[in-house]
Amino acid sequence: MRSISATMFISLDGVVQGLGRPDEDTRGGFTHGGWGPGYTDEVMRRELGKGMARPGDLLLGRRTWEDFTSAWGQATDGNPISAHLNAATKYVVSRTLSDADAWQNSILLRGEAVETVAELKARPGGDLSINGSASLVRSLHAAGLIDRYTLLIHPVTLGSGMRLFEGEAPRTEFELTGSVTTGTGVIIAHYTRR
After folding, report:
1. For 29-149, where are the alpha helices, taking DSSP H only?
2. Any idea what DSSP says for residue 183?
3. pTM for the whole thing?
4. pLDDT exceeds cutoff 90 at 51
5. β-pairing verdict for 148-154 and 4-11
6. 162 vs 169, which has greater pLDDT?
7. How many CB atoms lie within 10 A of CB 185?
8. How far lies 185's CA from each of 32, 107, 181, in Å?
């Protein structure tokens, strides 16, 4: 059985929305987009690189897949992140997409996330990693399908926005398996489900 890990950039008050740029995700009138890039430093890049160096496939929700497709899908700049994302097998979970042809190595998982991902997890293959895709992570967490989290906890509160752990979910305990603090005050915490 495959394992599923989720890497999430999160504010101190739990917001995971609109990290990268002001127009990234304005749902619900969110006006704080672009809160994350100023905290990126060499320590964060190194730690994220370790995660990308592990073998496995990507699992993405539709919104994140579409955003990554436009940001990384056509990149030929020699950036190691672009190279990694373009080469990886990408499973995109969606009820609305008709195909996943817009980005190489993408496979559409049509239907309800919990059902399609549970089936994928049960099949032989590489471990699955989720980057972003907060709605997908919340539904998979509530179903007990997330095995590990890497949380990049940023020293900022936003006061509004989509939070990582909103809605119904069972009590779940995790073990802290490692942590690193960046020079900008971001705590990168690794948790494994007990």
Report:
1. 42-53, 62-72, 80-87, 113-122, 134-142
2. T
3. 0.93
4. no
5. parallel
6. 162
7. 12
8. 19, 37, 6
Strands 187-193 and 174-181 turn out to be antiparallel
Cα separation, 18 vs 162, in Å, equals: 9
The 3-class secondary structure across 149-173, one letter per residue, is EEEEEECCCCCCCCECCCCCCCCCC
Query: Rounded distance, CA 72 to CA 149, Å?
Result: 23
- The rounded distance, in Å, linking the Cα atoms of 173 and 194 is 6
162, 35 contact by CB (below 8 A): no
Contact status, residue 56 vs residue 126, Cβ threshold 8 Å: yes
Closest Cα partner for 179 from 191, 193, 161, 164?
191
Q: Considering only the top CATH level, what class is 4-178?
A: alpha beta
Domain ranges of the chain: 4-178
Q: Are 164 and 10 in contact (CB under 8 A)?
A: yes
**Rounded to an integer, what distance in angstroms lies between the CA atom of residue 31 and that of residue 118?**
35
What band does 102 get if pLDDT is binned at 50, 70 and 90? very high
- Kind and range of the H or E element at 110? strand 106-110
Phi and psi torsions of 140, nearest 5°: -70, -35
Tokens coding 4: 């599923």
CA distances from 138 to 8, 34, 85, 170, 184 (A): 11, 22, 23, 11, 27
Structure-token pair, residue 192:
């494994």
